Amino acid sequence: MPGTNDTNTTHARTPEQACDYFLTVAEFDPAAVITFRSDAHLAQHNALRGLEVVLQYADRIKKELPGVDLERICELQPLTHAVIFAAGRVNRAPESTLLRDLMPEAYQLRRRVLATAVALSEAGLLPQREVEAIHEGRGKVDAAGDLIQLPALFRRHAAVIAGKHPVEKAELERAEALGQQLLEILRPGAAPSTTAVNPELAALVDARDRLWTLLSARHEELWRVGAWLFGYEVDDKVPALQSRKLKRKMVETPVPVVPTDGPVG
Question: What pLDDT does 251 receive?
Fold first, then answer.
């Protein structure tokens, strides 16, 4: 393993080697780990853009900010490669591929069953408050949870709604099984299931999230140096990792036309 100051060695590493190296550095309390829900390539673009700008003032930083570790900041470059590599490993994991295959069916089932539940609640046959709570869900995890809650809601009120809706029993059973399967993938351990959580996938997700947390922390160091250099312009010089802000072209302000009392000339 290279020493702390051996950034040249770190820069020469392949993305996989950089990933392995930074994982030895990315040791965090689990409560401090930031879940990766980002665009890794956008993060790389913004991090390297900010790094390039700040390093133009390297001599000044060394002279006036002796407490700043420029070598740590320079590790942003290989660290972005490590994050991209780690995120790619998670996306290539069998469960992640399965997730992409299952979500279209999950969304379609949720729409059908939820639409029926809404119609039944408007007819006074299902509790409107429960249906509204399910309807408010957003994202993959909520969609998976809804696939478990909706069949349970239909079962609790089976006697009242029997013969009054088009949803088949087999659809409700499929929805519940699919919801449990998806929660197993999305939030290991969150759903009751006889299927064991894949420890390999859990390890890949943990590695990705720890590297993202490290990248976020290192980028924060870069931003603080940028704030010292550029003041209020720092966000333009050192953009946030997920910033999609584009520089606007200067537009000439039109000169107002002042009306005259009579013809000119």
Answer: 42
Q: Alpha helix locations (H) across the chain?
A: 7-11, 15-23, 40-55, 58-64, 70-74, 76-92, 94-122, 128-135, 139-156, 158-161, 169-186, 199-230, 234-237
What residues contact residue 219 under an 8 Å CB cut-off, 6+ apart?
Answer: 47, 50, 76, 241
Confidence grade of residue 136 (pLDDT, cut at 50, 70, 90): confident
**Confidence class of residue 143 from pLDDT cuts 50, 70 and 90?**
confident
pLDDT bin (cut points 50, 70, 90) of residue 59 is very high
In the chain, where the domains are located: 12-93+202-237, 102-197
| Predicted structure pTM score | 0.57
**What average pLDDT does the structure give for the chain?**
82
Query: Residue 242 class from Cβ within 10 Å (0-12 exposed, 13-18 middle, 19+ buried)?
Result: exposed
- Torsion over CA of 134, 140, 144 and 149, rounded to 10 degrees? -10
| Rounded Cα–Cα distance for residues 185 and 198 (Å) | 9
Torsion of CA 117, 123, 127, 131, to 10 degrees: 30
102 CB-near residues (< 8 Å, 6+ apart): 178, 181, 182
- The whole-angstrom distance between residue 261's C-alpha and the CA centroid of its chain comes to 62
